[in-house]
Design goal:
Blueprint (H helix, E strand, L loop, with lengths): L10 H13 L4 E5 L1 H8 L8 E5 L10 H7 L4 H10 L5 E4 L3 H12 L9 E8 L2 E6 L9 H17 L8 E4 L10 H11 L5 E5 L1 H5 L5 E3 L2 H26 L3 H20 L7 E5 L4 E5 L5 H16 L2 H10 L2
Helix pairs in contact: 1-11, 3-5, 4-5, 6-7, 6-12
Length: about 325
């Protein structure tokens, strides 16, 4: 666990680690300034399962990712990535600079053999549960083969971690017909259609929230735009509801009646419930947590990493690539 990555590091990071160690009994290697981290976890429940690995440097949120990773070899992020490379840790989790986390994963942990481009996977709530968006921002410019591999990795994650039998794969497009979209979309469609995946064809943006598929494949530019739009839309809708409910006494009464249901909806749309976004295609489980992650988000990110490790997601991806 990168102890100094994120807007609320190291306090919220340490608190999330303590919760994961105490409640879920997950052993954790926490990287960062030893004196500061020790003061945050000393003698607290769960601290017996946390080992601090000293790291004298930090990578800021605004730093150039590759340059920072190469220059700051003693940063909490790079030290954490090296622990995974050395097989001393099974997973890397960071709420810090997303680009730096990706760079550290690629440069220090390495890709699964055969994977052209690792992909960020985000979970989006739907009417039927959740849907994986792959890629959600790692690769802006893509080739058809990349999208095929995104689908393969997303399918494995949905099956192994979300327990979805034979995940339904959809290619994001501007129409359902095979000939719709740009050159990338049309060529990717043919690769997916000829694969052994449970590919159901093209899906449009409106199909995602209705749960028409379990995995949506797209390039990182489009995927990241979808995620950010969904986050903003959800926040705006709840703000509008709050404003409307507070306009009169009858509406306030109605709001009190609806409150339990609204809380359940808000919980489904709360990113802290999901912990973070898996980076699929690297030689170790990697979870990229939101920059504003609090204790709850870090706790769930650690649990998500453990689930990926326990269900051998990385090994399954490697086996698929070995058979290509």
């Amino acid at each position: 666990m990168d102890g100094f990555g994120g807007d609320y590091a190291p306090e919220q990071i340490a608190a999330g680690c303590l919760q994961a160690a105490d409640i879920a009994r997950i052993p954790i290697l926490l990287t960062g300034d030893q004196n500061i981290l020790e003061s945050l976890i000393k003698d607290k429940p769960g601290s017996e399962l946390i080992e601090i690995v000293h790291a004298s440097e930090q990578i800021g949120m605004e730093e150039a990712p590759i340059e920072a990773v190469r220059k700051k070899k003693e940063s909490s992020l790079v030290v954490a990535a090296n622990l995974v490379r050395q097989k001393k840790a099974a997973a890397l989790i960071s709420a810090g600079n997303t680009g730096a986390c990706m760079a550290a994963s690629l440069l220090n942990i390495g890709r699964v053999r055969g994977i052209e481009r690792p992909a960020i996977t985000c979970l989006m709530p739907t009417l039927n549960g959740v849907c994986l968006i792959v890629d959600a921002g790692a690769n802006v410019d893509c080739r058809p083969k990349y999208l095929l591999q995104f689908a393969q990795m997303g399918s494995i994650y949905a099956e192994k971690v979300l327990a979805v039998a034979k995940p339904r794969i959809g290619l994001l497009n501007i129409g359902e017909e095979p000939h719709k979209g740009n050159d990338l979309s049309q060529k990717s469609y043919q690769l997916l259609a000829n694969s052994e995946l449970n590919f159901i064809g093209n899906v449009e943006g409106r199909d995602i929230s209705h749960g028409e598929v379990d995995v949506v494949v797209c390039d990182g530019f489009v995927g990241n735009t979808i995620i950010k739009f969904a986050e903003g839309l959800g926040s705006a809708l709840f703000s509008m509801l709050k404003t409307e409910f507070m306009k009169s006494t009858p509406r306030k009464i109605a709001a009190s009646v609806l409150r339990p249901g609204l809380k359940n909806i808000a919980k489904k749309m709360d990113y802290t419930e999901y912990g973070g976004a898996p980076l699929l295609g690297v030689n170790g489980a990697v979870i990229i947590a939101h920059g504003t992650s609090n204790q709850k988000a870090i706790y769930n990110a650690i649990r998500a990493a453990k689930t990926a490790v326990d269900n051998q997601v990385v090994q399954s991806i490697a086996e698929i690539m070995a058979g290509e």
